[in-house]
Each structure stands twice: as C-alpha cells, then as structure tokens.
C-alpha cells in the first residue's frame, strides 16, 4: 500500500486503483486475499465506508469476490478484466485525442506511425 493518499482524487478511487495496480503488477495474484476495509481504514485513518466503496466497485466489476467470514479475494479473471478495461481507457484518453489532433494537422496514418517508431529509435539509443 502507498504510504499516503493524494488530496486531488477521491480516497475510494485511490484505494480501488491501488488494488488494481497491485493485481496488474502481480503483487496480488488471482485467489489471494486483499486487505479488508478495516485494514485500509486503520492504515490510512479513514472511514471504513470510504474504503468499502472502492472495494465494492471492484466486486461489481468482477475483480474481487467475497468469501463470507474470510475476506475479499482476487478473481481468476481479474488481471485480464483490468487489462481490457485499461486498454479501453488508454484508447479513449490517448489514442482518440491523438487521432483527432493528427487529423487537424493533416498527419496521415503512415506519418503518425513513423513518428511513433521514431520515438522508439530514440529510446533504444
């Protein structure tokens, strides 16, 4: 868990994103238990309902499931669900605006690909 929370974003979203990042980075794997709402609340000194809101969103999305009396666990499909969700978000927030701006500047698809590959060449040096 991160040591402190960011003031610019709702706390429940930060908790949700922390769990998502932990799953994507394999810090927490399918079938493993995640911290409880009370553990998050105690660690960050927040209301347990705030932590529960982030965790419950992950349950709704099929990322976590509850084992009564034991806790919340990562589903088998969690990582794939998150990858697909993040790819769509990446497309919506980066690729679509990039294509829109490229169109305004009359940059062809070939030119755009060339620009991207040019960036790759610089990274390799």
UniProtKB/TrEMBL annotation:
InterPro entries the record matches: Tscrpt_reg_HTH_GntR, WH-like_DNA-bd_sf, WH_DNA-bd_sf
Signal peptide (UniProt feature, chain positions): none
PROSITE patterns for this protein: HTH_GNTR
SUPFAM superfamilies, sorted: Winged helix' DNA-binding domain
Keyword terms: DNA-binding, Transcription, Transcription regulation
Gene3D superfamilies per record: Winged helix-like DNA-binding domain superfamily/Winged helix DNA-binding domain
CDD domains reported for this sequence: WHTH_GntR
Family matches, as Pfam families: GntR
Domain HTH gntR-type: 9-77
Name by which UniProt lists this protein: GntR family transcriptional regulator
Origin species: Oceanobacillus kapialis
């Amino acid at each position: 868990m991160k040591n402190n929370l960011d003031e610019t974003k709702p706390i429940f979203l930060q908790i949700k994103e922390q769990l998502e990042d932990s799953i994507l980075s394999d810090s927490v794997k399918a079938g493993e238990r995640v911290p409880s709402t009370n553990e998050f609340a105690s660690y960050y000194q927040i209301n347990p309902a705030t932590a529960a809101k982030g965790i419950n969103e992950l349950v709704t999305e099929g990322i976590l499931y509850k084992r009564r009396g034991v806790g919340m666990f990562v589903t088998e499909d969690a990582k794939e669900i998150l990858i697909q969700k993040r790819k769509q978000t990446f497309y919506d927030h980066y690729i679509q605006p990039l294509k829109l701006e490229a169109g305004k500047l009359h940059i062809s698809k070939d030119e755009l690909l060339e620009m991207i590959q040019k960036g790759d060449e610089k990274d390799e040096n």
